[in-house]
Amino acid sequence: MREDDVVAAIRAIVEPVIHRRIVLGIGDDAALWQPSRSHRSAITTDMLVEGVHFSRALMSLNDAGWRAMMANAADVAAMGACPLLATVALGVPAGAVFDEVRDLYDGLSAAAREVRIDIAGGDLSRAPAFTIAVTAVGEVRPSNVKTRAGGRPNAILAVTGELGASRAGLDVARNPHLLEGELAVAALEAFRRPRARCAEGRYFGASRNVQAMMDCSDGLSTDLDRLCVASGCGAVVERVPVADAARAAAQKLGEDPERYALAGGEDFELLVAISPRAFGHLAQRFAARFGRPLHRIGFLRETAGIEFHDQPLQRTGWDHFTR
Amino acid sequence: MREDDVVAAIRAIVEPVIHRRIVLGIGDDAALWQPSRSHRSAITTDMLVEGVHFSRALMSLNDAGWRAMMANAADVAAMGACPLLATVALGVPAGAVFDEVRDLYDGLSAAAREVRIDIAGGDLSRAPAFTIAVTAVGEVRPSNVKTRAGGRPNAILAVTGELGASRAGLDVARNPHLLEGELAVAALEAFRRPRARCAEGRYFGASRNVQAMMDCSDGLSTDLDRLCVASGCGAVVERVPVADAARAAAQKLGEDPERYALAGGEDFELLVAISPRAFGHLAQRFAARFGRPLHRIGFLRETAGIEFHDQPLQRTGWDHFTR
Q1: pTM score, two decimals?
Q2: Out of A26, A121, A124, whose CB is closest to B30?
């Protein structure tokens, strides 16, 4: 069973919605509710488990804490919302010492400060392995909410940065000889200390020309498919912006760099669908504001499915229930 | 190291607070923030791990899901808040089948409906054992917020129900011969299907005479100590209302029923500190409204520490880091 199928089955169990103030439930990057008429709050949760999502052979507990917080911040940002606070439920294995818990919390806390999140509460528990369940809350004006749905045929698809560096970092962590020098450093940094695109998320939230938005956490091939399904569209991918480290790693491994980047997850770049007439202007303003280009990767189409270099593109990203 | 010491150390790492709108951070049943001037939102999180908090030999996954949701609802209720929504991060061991995930979600969902919570989002992950991290959000008027702090000497301490039944249920689940008939049924029901006191929490929230409130989740001896520390008081416990099933179980086990109940956790009754002059009236109205008595257990005092039958009372409840 695929993760999305399990989610769909769960959705059927937990519906119907009781409170009308829940304006968006299960299935997007975050859920939305209405604390008062003029406000929307966004909430998202993510679990990182040692041995599943991270291994201490490849990253420190400090890095794992950082990533857990950033993953949630990225989900909040993907709604157009501004992160406000988080809670942390932490499972600690027997035999762990307090310095390990401290190291993990230092990472959580450093990432939280970076994206201006307050860690407002939590829970501590024994568990078979370090288990980090972060829940983040953000806020957004009702008019600025973006979801995965809303993309229309001919919208331009773009991402906020090059992809694949985090995957390259994982490969370098596993095999330190894969890359050298600055490329190795950049790959490991992307893997261990990713950054959520919070300012970019708010920027797109404020634009009426952004039809749909989500973050790339499970690999673009998987995430784009989710955006397409939610928007009732298909897509054509023309090109994939590949990070230098990812290109070098792919070449060393004998893989196609674009496909390597399409399958890589945890880049936390935002994927947006933008009205075709507005794209040029928005991309120009984006570059001026953030000092980096907005990368056009293709466009939405009516026909279902994703095409990449004249071939159907399958999901190659992360799925918890098929791997 | 005690759990509360770990929490205090973590608090030092994650401070300071960035957003002024976080009006209450780590250390109470839930954190509070201000989505708009006239609103307060409460958030709490709790992790349940198979083999740590529950065992499938003693309860079904359905029951575990129910308890996970109720534990969070009880924390929200303890702030005087009304539960609104929850997210669920679920870790599923390799080899689990979808029917198990469904059973767990059925329990989560049934409890959520019972307390009018919408499950608005979640995350699914592999994990070494079933791991249920629920985060619940509730809402409360600023004037109705109650915390563990605020209790003053001479306040009357009371609980919303008899204690110890959940512990008796655990003992019966371990040893089915311990109790028989209705007592066994009541004990198992309290253990497997506890109920958060949401209406009672809102009721106390609306009363200016309730100085402090929390829920009894780790055992009254431990929870009362936390309320005392937060309020800068000590307490005298005069009597403990013991559930019939707990009394019978304690007697069979050769234990003192009151001490058995003091050490039992997961009853989810509310513990309140009430102005002495208002107690009689409030208790009368409580009984009329809920059809059950409000149980007076003792009073707060200036001198630190808790006294029970002329002896100092030690914490005998649940602590994740000393057991």
Answers
A1: 0.93
A2: A121
